[in-house]
Amino acid sequence: MKLHNEISYLSGFGNEHETEALPGALPVGQFNPQRCAYGLYAEQFSSTAFTAPRHCNRRSWLYRIRPSVAMNDFEPLGLLNQNTDKTSIKNEKNLGAIKSAPLNDSYCPPNNMRWDPIPIPTQPTDFIDGLTTIAANGNVKTKAGIAIHIYTANKSMENRYFYNADGELLIVPELGDICAYTEFGLLYVEPGDILVIPRGIKFKIMLINEQARGYICENYGQSFTLPERGPVGANGYANDRDFEYPKAYFEDIDEPCELITKFFGQLYRAKLNHSPLDVVAWVGTSAPYKYQLSRFNVINSVSFDHPDPSIFTVLTSPSFAEGTANVDFVIFPPRWQVSEHTFRPPWYHRNTMSEFMGLIKGQYEAKPNGFLPGGMSLHNCMSPHGPEAEVFEQAVNGKLIPEQHQDTLAFMFESHWVIEPTEFALHTPLRQTNYMECWANLKKYFNGQP
């Protein structure tokens, strides 16, 4: 499948974009004419309230071959069940591996936790069948909090489509290139990119390589937006222009297909006799987008002390309290360390925010051993954590010369809600039960002398 060099994009975060796959498909001067060109239907898609302030109101007009309501009723796939061993399930039963908050069948110890990567299935498994929930917080019913999933796949979705009514999806590939076929167009995404699909948008994931794996943050709360720069000024961090939106693309396919949705914490399935990706043109501010993490402009200390990780925030979902995120998406990309008279690794700390980390490639400087690409760790509210003992010894005894972190890319989902692991995450053999041993050799150096 040769797509990477054939897809072009619209740029600019949150801009009102307009694009048409057929000339003249977009109406001029109004959104909902009495008759649309080409016999299309007009349909408004809103991912914020109608009355949301103009600067944060997100809606788009779609001009499609059939309106979305042209479908059969949904049928429930059964209550979600996380008690199934992920290594022994496949196909439709795999859907039981998806959980939503609140998690009523598990407990949440304050222990630091770390996991090895989930292996790629040996049976044919697409993006939806290969979802496993690792943790969640908040409450999907009140549109607050997040869920964290891992996807593993070895086949494309083909005639299966999905939309999530419960939350916005932030997809972070770690292994394998994928192409997201969405109602708005095509987005080619590879490790080092992120993909955001707003709540309610229909899509399917097609594999470019034989295998794919990555992380998903299902955001129940307010849509992701760019953080304010404050005293940094007008430039730096993630720049609006680097976010890419799809140009219109449509499927005019009259064949049976399956539409799966996640709604109110449960999965449903409906039959369609046509592809739901039949949008010929669209205009608006709510659409899926991608971003290359290598374009993030790092702001860092050039004097002393290690700054807070908030300086690496790419996207944020605000909460009820100003400056306190429902979830932040933070990255630790290649960068220089030049601070003087400073313990350069992340300091030891306890934090009211809860931190879930993943690794896309390379090594994370505070955890060079045991934290693998595709793996993950969880440090919850007020649970102490920091560099392992070996890293501490090197940091306090090493010569402070300019140092470049290369070929590395880690990230963090940080939330003000406690992040609760699922039953699967607590009991899977992939959990490293010896994780705390990386701090076991921290020595006592106190001698009463300054």
TrEMBL record:
Which residues belong to the signal peptide in this entry?
Answer: none
Spell out the protein name for this chain.
Answer: Homogentisate 1,2-dioxygenase
Q: Which cofactor does it need?
A: Fe cation
**Occurrences of domain Homogentisate 1,2-dioxygenase C-terminal (ranges):** 294-446
Q: Which Gene3D superfamilies match?
A: Jelly Rolls
Q: Which InterPro entries match?
A: HgmA_C (IPR046451), HgmA_N (IPR046452), Homogentis_dOase (IPR005708), RmlC-like_jellyroll (IPR014710), RmlC_Cupin_sf (IPR011051)
Catalytic residues in the record = H306
Q: In which family does this protein belong, per the annotation? A: Belongs to the homogentisate dioxygenase family.
Which keywords does the record carry?
Answer: Dioxygenase, Iron, Metal-binding, Oxidoreductase, Phenylalanine catabolism, Tyrosine catabolism
Ranges for domain Homogentisate 1,2-dioxygenase N-terminal come to 9-293
The record's Pfam families line, in alphabetical order, gives: HgmA_C, HgmA_N
Enzyme superclass (EC): oxidoreductase
In which residues is homogentisate bound? Y364, H385
Organism field: Marinibactrum halimedae
| Residues given in the record as Fe cation binding sites | H349, E355, H385
Top-rank taxon: Bacteria
Under Gene Ontology molecular function, one entry of this record is: homogentisate 1,2-dioxygenase activity
Which GO biological-process labels does this protein carry?
Answer: L-phenylalanine catabolic process; L-tyrosine catabolic process
EC number(s) on file: 1.13.11.5
Q: Which GO terms describe its cellular component?
A: cytoplasm
